[in-house]
Design goal:
This protein is of the alpha+beta class. The chain is built from 4 helices and 5 strands. The strands form 2 sheets. The chain has a 3-stranded antiparallel sheet with strand order 1-5-4. Strands 2-3 form a two-stranded antiparallel ribbon. A hairpin with a 3-residue loop joins strand 4 and strand 5 (about 120-130). The termini are close together.
């Protein structure tokens, strides 16, 4: 039986998220928020509605996972410590790095359940932190 050690949820407005790209912050997002494995191979690619939805949902996962872990960015964890990757079944999985990985180990978290959804205006994600 698993113990639930944390639960987080986050909602991202696609309109607000898309403004980050319009003001020329793509490079900053790439360096500080998303890993190369999370972002499309061509950084300069046009930001389509589908890509915007995918990236905003992954951003929501990072925020939800921080909440489930009990930390926020700037409190020892950073967005790139939380990597959201596609799994073989069409869903996503979470990999922790750096201080987030260390904090999860300290708290006994060894398994994550992630759920994402997006529609026309919003992306939402939940993160459930477990100990087996």
């Amino acid at each position: 039986m698993s113990d639930i050690l944390g639960l987080g949820i986050d909602v991202v407005s696609l309109a607000r998220f898309s403004r980050l790209f319009r003001v020329g912050r793509e490079e900053r997002l790439r360096r500080h928020v998303f890993s190369e494995r999370e972002w499309p191979r061509r950084w300069g690619a046009e930001l389509s509605p589908g890509l915007l939805a995918k990236l905003s949902a992954r951003f929501a996962v990072k925020e939800a996972a921080m909440k489930a872990l009990g930390c926020g960015w700037g409190q020892g964890s950073f967005f790139r410590d939380f990597e959201v990757l596609s799994d073989s079944g069409g869903g996503v999985r979470l990999e922790l790095h750096g201080s987030a990985r260390d904090l999860a180990r300290e708290r006994g978290i060894n398994r994550w359940f992630i759920s994402i959804a997006h529609e026309r205006y919003y992306s939402i994600a939940t993160a459930l932190a477990l100990r087996d």
